[in-house]
Amino acid sequence: MPHILTVTMNPTLDIHSTVPRLLPSSKMRCGHPRYDPGGGGINVARAATRLGVTATAVFTSGGYTGQRVESLLAADPLEACPVPVAEPTRESLVIVDEHSGECYRFVLPGPHLEADEELRCLKVIYENASAASMLVVSGSLPPGCSPGFFGAVSRIAAHHGCLLVVDTNGAALPWVTGAFLVKPSVRELRDLTGAPLPDRAAQVAAARDLIRHHISEVVVVSLGAQGALVVTADEDHDVAGVPVPAGVGTGVGSGDSMVAAIAVALTRGWPIVDAVRYGTAAGAAAMLTPGTEPCRAQDVDRLYGQTSPVSSA
């Protein structure tokens, strides 16, 4: 039975609220807050279980905020494996300006990890990887995490025969090695290459550089509402975005729902381009849920039925 193991080295307690209008130097009365467990891998695990695949979430946990994340996750049908760390888990504040409809996100840096804490995380990942067919590392790395972390995770995935999927910020991408798939945004590719990447050809070339450097076999370039660009060593395909009406969501975690759906589809043996189509549907479906609540399976299936056929260059 397919099983997904996710890793979140820098989880967050997501706090969502509203203000009538965002103003400088003013006391702004917020609406009723909503609290969600957050961070890339946690979001991926929550979405994967909604899509019918069992998941285990390994994540660091420290202080009151870490305990709150753990208690919130108790409501989800996944196996939570918190790894205790000394410093508190970070918080993320998401505020919607009711006047403009704009969403503002304030994200704290997270705890500083000591070397022994990172080693404990790797030990827990190793212990849980034997039961997994897919290992997903998603989200930013906290301060103190070593450049060798992704290499160690790659060796764990190879040892247990897991496909490795990585979705991390652009600054950490050069550390990744031996992944099956990475999912940078165009902005992250720009930051990584230092080039403007003004068109599709430049984006494909930048993605193939990652493949040539053995970072991954497949690069899925996220294009937001426009969909995604799927690049392998010898093929490239456009996957159109899925339009959705304005909903109750802010889009927080939509990229993680996309990764979850791609991972779920791959564990079921789908071709990569169909898996990314499913992923774009899941990312759009996450726009219809409040806070950091994952996509709903019925929304994903409905939107996937509306996706356009994949085109290639």
Outline the fold blueprint.
Blueprint: E1 3-8, E2 12-19, E3 34-38, H1 40-50, E4 54-61, H2 63-73, E5 79-84, E6 90-97, E7 103-107, H3 115-129, E8 134-138, H4 149-160, E9 163-167, E10 179-182, H5 186-193, H6 200-212, E11 216-222, E12 227-231, E13 236-240, H7 254-267, H8 272-285, H9 297-304, E14 311-312
Parallel strand pairs: 1-4, 1-8, 2-6, 4-5, 8-9, 9-10, 10-11
Antiparallel strand pairs: 2-3, 6-7, 11-12, 12-13, 13-14
Protein name: 1-phosphofructokinase family hexose kinase
InterPro entries: PfkB_dom, Ribokinase-like, Tagatose/fructose_Pkinase
Keywords: ATP-binding, Kinase, Nucleotide-binding, Transferase
Descriptive overview:
This protein is an alpha/beta fold. It has 9 helices and 14 strands. The chain has a 10-stranded mixed β-sheet with strand order 5-4-1-8-9-10-11-12-13-14, with helices on both faces. Strands 3-2-6-7 form a 4-stranded mixed β-sheet. It starts with a strand and ends with a strand. 48% of the residues are buried.
